TrEMBL record:
Transmembrane segments: 26-46, 52-71, 92-118, 130-157, 169-192, 212-233, 275-294, 306-331, 343-364, 370-395, 416-436, 442-461, 503-528, 548-570
Organism: Plantactinospora solaniradicis
Keyword Transmembrane: yes
Keywords: Membrane, Transmembrane, Transmembrane helix
KW Transferase (keyword) present: no
Protein's UniProt name: ABC-2 type transport system permease protein
């Protein structure tokens, strides 16, 4: 008990000192959003108890997937910190569990679980009293399931097979969530499936509704999860990494060739890059193939382009992921490894993208001009923007040998990584807009435009990244070593903005993707394919003469929002001085 209270107090102290400045604002925004969702959940307790069970299933899904996608979840207190104390695994697990209940996510979830008390009050006084312990047990199940899931993922990711399997699973899940409307339409159900009531997320509600066995099930599950977590903690603290067998060396005759060889070897060994490639592949395939559940194959040819865009978003912090290894490049006067990284990225991603695009487009029989126009534009745009975004918007990363239980947790700044990924998504898609519009209007001419655009983006953005790396390399290395940037970078500039300007920038970066991608780009594709009155794509509901203008207007609106947000955040240009 003393260990649990001590660790909980440590967590409180750590959060009290950490939640300041921008991090406190992000936490406050997340708390407000969580309270709104919790209020909606409580409202369901008044309307329909079956819908309440479905809502708790969604909360459980969030606890399971959220920490995995965020690189391992909250690790304010890590098991490694207590290794020298000699605590038994079960006592350590109990102490860390007590600390896990400290923070905003458990508090928000506990607020949502107040719906059990509301449901119990509707049924009677005894049920309302029963709801209080059921609520606490249900929260313990949420937290422990999350911890065990993260522990299992961390254990699996210690091998290449585990990283690949996790990438496939996470990519498929995220793509399914992105296409959830297809699942609902395919099921054709208006009610909640009965199975949802009997998931572990619904056992607390079953206990309130008179199924007393659910109390025992909750308690038994908590004990089993606690034992499993203790075993995973033992494996985590005492795990050692096996050394890889010797491999045949790559030979290179030029400086860029050496960089390509190094990057290819890293891509084959680094679990993070294994995960990123398979995640993007699984996401592209599942996202494009999901509409097949309702008999529509029109999205299938876009599996390759979606794969390219997602792969670029995953690799947008390529320099930050490598950590302080940048000093090797900086020690060579005038050296820049940008071109080598671009070629290596294309060598690992272009064959997959081409094969996926050709196979999927052959299955549907087209549209060949549009797909072949998008492919080179996106490949060139991604190869140019990945290093450019990384050197201009670097998020300080953790050196590979210092990563915690989850090797995918490459940085402590999860918000920065998320914003960087969204920026890469938007910018890479933007590079394909000219080729896409030309292909839609003029057919095969779009392929020429796409090839020219891709080559220009690869060369131009790569050159800008090389110049930036030569001029600001020491500052970037200092940022990665200390986590603090020197000079007027975007991150430091953002923290200095006034609240109104900061709010405008948040809205621009957070919502610009909606008019740009779904209402602009995807709506244009649907209109060109003759898919009218399609779900929420406004252009498909317009008269014939307004369909393309409305889609183009939305795309321009999204680009304008990104441009406005960038203009607000960028530091003002200093006037040149003469001596």
């Amino acid at each position: 008990m003393a260990v649990a209270l001590t660790m909980a107090a440590m967590k409180v102290a750590a959060l009290r000192h950490a939640l300041r400045g921008e991090r406190a604002q992000s936490a406050g925004l997340g708390a407000v959003l969580g309270i709104v969702l919790a209020g909606g959940t409580i409202y369901l307790a008044v309307r329909d108890l079956d819908l309440l069970a479905a809502a708790y299933a969604v909360w459980l899904l969030g606890w399971l997937l959220g920490p995995v996608f965020m690189g391992g979840g909250d690790e304010t207190l890590r098991p490694e910190y207590f290794t020298l104390l000699g605590l038994p695994p079960r006592r350590l697990a109990v102490g860390l569990l007590a600390a896990a209940f400290v923070g905003l996510p458990p508090l928000v979830s506990l607020t949502a679980l107040l719906g059990l008390v509301v449901a119990g009050a509707r049924l009677g006084l005894v049920e309302a009293l029963v709801a209080v312990p059921a609520m606490l047990l249900q929260l313990a199940v949420f937290v422990l399931l999350s911890k065990v899931a993260v522990g299992l993922v961390g254990l699996a990711l210690r091998s290449r097979l585990g990283a690949i399997s996790t990438g496939v699973l996470n990519g498929a899940i995220l793509a399914g969530l992105g296409q959830i409307w297809v699942v609902f339409l395919a099921l054709g159900q208006t009610g909640v499936p009965p199975l949802v009531r009997y998931l572990p997320s619904g056992w607390g509600l079953l206990a309130v509704r008179g199924s007393w066995w659910a109390f025992g099930a909750l308690a038994g599950l908590i004990v089993l999860l606690l034992l499993a977590w203790a075993a995973l903690l033992r494996r985590r603290v005492g795990a050692t990494r096996a050394s890889g067998r010797a491999r045949r060396p790559f030979l290179a005759r030029t400086a860029d060739g050496a960089i390509v060889a190094k990057e290819l070897r890293t891509s084959s060994r680094d679990l993070v890059r294994n995960y990123q490639l398979t995640f993007a592949f699984a996401y592209g395939v599942c996202f494009a193939a999901s509409p097949l559940l309702v008999g529509w194959n029109g999205m299938l040819p876009y599996a390759g382009p979606v794969f390219i865009v997602m792969a670029a978003a995953m690799a947008a912090n390529v320099y930050g992921t490598d950590g302080t290894a940048l000093w090797l490049t900086l020690m060579t006067p005038g050296a820049s490894d940008v071109r080598g990284r671009q070629l290596a990225w294309l060598a690992t991603h272009a064959p997959v993208a081409v094969l996926l695009t050709v196979v999927c487009t052959t299955i549907t029989g087209g549209p060949w001009p549009l797909i072949l126009a998008l492919l080179p534009a996106l490949l060139g745009g991604a190869a140019g923007l990945v290093p450019l975004i990384s050197v201009y918007g670097l998020v300080p990363g953790t050196d590979p040998h210092k990563r915690a239980n989850n090797p995918l947790r490459t940085s402590e700044d999860e918000g920065g990584l998320t914003g960087q990924a969204y920026l890469a998504l938007a910018l890479v898609v933007t590079t394909a807009l000219p080729a896409g519009f030309v292909a839609i209007r003029f057919g095969w001419a779009g392929v020429i435009v796409g090839t020219a655009t891709g080559l220009l983006c690869w060369w131009g953005f790569g050159r800008l990244a090389s110049v930036r790396l030569r001029e600001r390399g020491p500052e970037l290395l200092s940022t990665m070593r200390t986590g603090r940037s020197i000079g007027g970078t975007m991150q430091s500039r953002f923290t200095e903005l006034s609240k109104p300007r900061k709010a405008v920038a948040w809205w621009c970066f957070g919502f610009a993707a909606i008019p740009l991608i779904p209402q602009g780009i995807l709506a244009t594709v649907f209109v060109s394919r003759g898919t009218l009155r399609h779900t929420w794509f406004l252009a498909t509901y317009m008269p014939p003469g307004l369909r393309y203008p409305v889609a183009l207007g939305f795309a321009l609106l999204g680009l304008a929002m990104y441009a406005l947000g960038t203009w607000i955040v960028l530091p003002p240009r200093q006037p040149a001085t003469t001596e």
